[in-house]
Amino acid sequence: MELSNNKIKNICNIKIEQITNNHWTINNIRTTNNTGRGSQIKKDIVVEINNNGCWNCISHFKDRQGYVLIWKTDKKYRLHRLILSKKLGRKLNDEEIVRHMCDNPQCCNPNHLLIGSPLDNYNDMVERERRVVAKGEDKSDNLTEKQVSEIYILALSGDSSQKEISKVYGLKRGIVESIVNNKAWVHVTKDINVEDCRLNTIINICEILMSNKKSFRKISRESGVNRETIRKIYSKQIYKDVTSNYIFAERK
Ligand SMILES: [Zn+2]
């Protein structure tokens, strides 16, 4: 990466500073001297600006829906919501939906974000469903591509058992099984990075380990990750790039 002279811009109240040709840090979304749970995480928020002008955050992890998560004071927030809130100069309430004009959940360019009404959201959903049906993929059941990805990720990240998943989605076990084993909907799941999903699980475990409320046994049962692995995460022997960001609670 080629370093250029530092350039600072203010775009819609968001202060960004150039670090390479297409990488910028976002400097006024959170301070790094917070007290509280997230205080030990002091990574800069780095975005990569692509040809569409999307600001893809590359420094932080994404949740299952593809939204970037940021610790601020003692809570986790979706970065794009923090950005829009800063742009508008007010807090967003939980009912307010933030829409991506670019259809890219990872993007946090304030110019690509809009407050949407529930009706907008409904229309977006209908549009997505329409596209799924138009592709002729929807046959024996009413699953959407989004649901299929969710099911795949849930199962492979060890977050939920296939039985639980089929219950939640009201599906026959066989359907979940064939999704997970790449026998159906492969066109949807083939690009899903299971490693990323596993990383999400590791992050969740790290977050749980920041308090000492749950036993390894319980964490293991809930996460589907075996106890020995959890012990190694706790002692930071594995997944060091993730675990080094955390300060775990002491255990008796
Ligand atoms: Zn965008």
Give a verbal description of the structure.
- The chain has 252 residues and is α+β, with helices and mostly antiparallel strands.
- It has 3 domains: 8-116, no CATH class; 119-189, no CATH class; 194-243.
- The protein has 10 helices and 9 strands.
- It has helices at 79-88, 118-134, 145-156, 162-169, 173-180, 186-189, 194-209, 216-223, 227-234, 240-243; strands at 8-11, 14-18, 23-26, 45-49, 55-57, 69-72, 75-78, 97-100, 113-116.
- The strands form 3 sheets. A 5-stranded antiparallel β-sheet has the order 1-2-3-4-5.
- The protein is globular, with a radius of gyration of 20 Å.
- The structure holds zinc ion.
Question: Keywords for this structure?
Answer:
252 residues; alpha+beta; 3 domains; 5-stranded antiparallel sheet; 38% helix; 15% strand; globular; binds zinc ion
> Can you list the ligands bound to this structure?
zinc ion
Give the SSE order as H and E letters: EEEEEEEHEEHHHHHHHHH
| Poorly predicted runs of 5 or more residues | 134-140
Strand content: 5-15%
Note the overall shape: globular
Largest sheet: 5 strands, antiparallel
Helix count equals 10
Count the strands?
A: 9
Q: How would you state the average pLDDT, rounded?
A: 80
Task: Give the distance, in angstroms, between the N- and C-terminal Cα atoms.
Answer: 46 Å
**Rg, Cα atoms, Å:** 20 Å
| Count of distinct structural domains | 3
Side by side, the strands of the main sheet go 1-2-3-4-5
